[in-house]
Design a protein that fits this description.
Blueprint: H1 2-10, H2 14-24, E1 29-35, E2 40-46, E3 54-61, H3 66-86, E4 92-99, H4 107-120, E5 125-129, H5 135-142, H6 160-180, E6 189-193, H7 197-208, E7 212-216, H8 220-230, E8 233-234, E9 247-250, H9 259-264, E10 269-270, H10 282-289, E11 293-294, H11 297-300, H12 303-313, H13 317-325, H14 327-341, H15 345-357
Parallel strand pairs: 3-4, 3-5, 6-7, 6-9, 7-8, 9-10, 10-11
Antiparallel strand pairs: 1-2, 2-4
Helix pairs in contact: 2-3, 3-15, 4-5, 6-7, 6-12, 6-14, 7-8, 12-13, 14-15
The structure holds nicotinamide-adenine-dinucleotide.
Nicotinamide-adenine-dinucleotide binds near residues 131, 164 and 217.
């Protein structure tokens, strides 16, 4: 009997698990390429094409297993669909994951191989810069396929982090208006977790508007730069949650908001750039119970995607800038409906996005 059960159990492979996950996320397509010459191991997860070609960054990071990489690509592609829908972009969500090898002997050949993979999908997937890849990498990819954005063609405009930071700053302004009734960030204390690309640019925008900053990063050099340039107070990574701030801004990793860290929070607003900030969706309810106003990440951090799409679709950057500014109104609408409907802000935002995806 026990053997019978374990034999049945063994029949469930990792692929079965991934199919179950795909069903749960309402996928979609998952494409895989292995190139024995360049050692490219690439996954492209295309979540949804109903609103248009799926757009999403190409990240190159180390993974413990191929399963973990596929799962990450799926989870991130799902988030991109929501992000694009919330910003009313004519795009579906996708993500490419390159399982980083120990060394890449010939980066150009490696990226060409990935570009050919993207090209083979005929435009259903448009690639862009993400963790572990650069705008210069996108230039190389553009030599082989036109289904790419965020190249250096438009200079700094192609750098998504700057626009993501602006969208997060607009979301902080909306939260401050909603929670405190204030139109200005002067004297507002923001605790920023992460002084990387977005964290640095966000600090720059907030400092210019008179906000007070406390920041942390495991990279002491990145942190020191913010101390010197923006008068930020540096703190240890684990102390950032209990900082006596108005706003907590997660701009480093995903899943940093869990039961323990939410109980440590002194801030009454949470607005940041990190993808998938909540360890579990019920943490949105926990924040609501504790009177903490949470700006859903896929609404607040859409600025980079808006510009990436603009560079691919129309090159109208005034329109893109306006769309990033409008994140303020979208977030305000989510906050108001959350109160009116007595639901978490996450519930409200997901509901709006799902309606648009159907
Ligand atoms: P980044 O890698 O440039 O910066 C992340 C920073 O977080 C790094 O400086 C890193 O040292 C720091 N960090 C890592 N672990 C930490 C910890 N435990 N405590 C404190 N700091 C820690 O990344 P980024 O481009 O600035 O993006 C930040 C977050 O926003 C990521 O989650 C990313 O997925 C998300 N995001 C970025 C963009 C964009 O346009 N760059 C768009 C949407 C979402």
């Amino acid at each position: 009997m026990i053997q019978e059960v374990s034999r049945k159990h063994k029949q469930h492979t990792a692929l079965d698990g991934l199919f179950r996950y795909a069903e749960f996320l309402n996928f979609g397509q998952i494409h895989i390429k292995f190139d024995p010459v360049t050692h490219l191991k690439a996954i492209i997860a295309v979540h949804n094409l109903k609103r248009g070609p799926a757009i999403g960054g190409c990240r190159m990071v180390h993974y413990g297993s191929a399963d973990a990489a596929i799962e990450d690509a799926m989870r991130l592609a799902y988030g991109m669909s929501f992000k694009a829908a919330m910003s009313n972009l004519p795009h579906g969500g996708a993500k490419a994951v390159l399982i980083a090898p120990k060394i890449i002997k010939d980066r150009k050949a490696y990226l060409y191989s990935f570009a050919d993979f993207v090209d083979s999908l005929g435009g259903s997937y448009v690639t862009a810069v993400d963790s572990g890849t650069s705008m210069q990498d996108m230039d190389i990819i553009a030599e082989r396929t036109s289904f790419v954005t965020t190249t250096t063609k438009f200079g700094d405009l192609g750098n998504p982090s700057l626009h993501t930071a602006t969208g997060v700053r607009r979301s902080i302004e909306a939260a401050v208006k909603f929670k405190l009734g204030r139109d200005s960030l002067e004297g507002i204390h923001v605790a920023i977790q992460g002084a990387g690309h977005v964290g640095f640019s966000l600090a720059n925008e907030l400092h210019a508007r008179g906000a007070k900053l406390t920041m942390t990063d495991v990279n002491t050099m990145a942190l020191q730069r913010c101390v010197e340039e923006f008068n930020a107070i540096a703190c240890e990574p684990e102390m950032i949650y209990s900082t006596n701030a108005d706003v907590f801004s997660p701009c480093a990793l995903g899943a940093t908001l869990n039961t323990k860290t939410i109980h440590q929070l002194k801030a009454s607003m949470v607005v940041g750039s990190a993808n998938n900030q909540l360890a579990h969706r019920h943490h949105a309810d926990l924040m609501q119970e504790r009177g903490i106003l949470y700006a859903p990440d896929f609404v607040a951090n859409a600025g980079g995607l808006i510009y990436a799409a603009a560079m691919y679709d129309h090159n109208d950057f005034d329109k893109a800038q306006q769309q990033v500014f409008n994140i303020y109104d979208t977030i305000m609408d989510v906050f108001s409906r959350s109160i009116k409907e007595n639901r978490s802000t996450l519930d409200v935002a997901e509901n709006i996005a799902m309606t648009r995806l159907r």
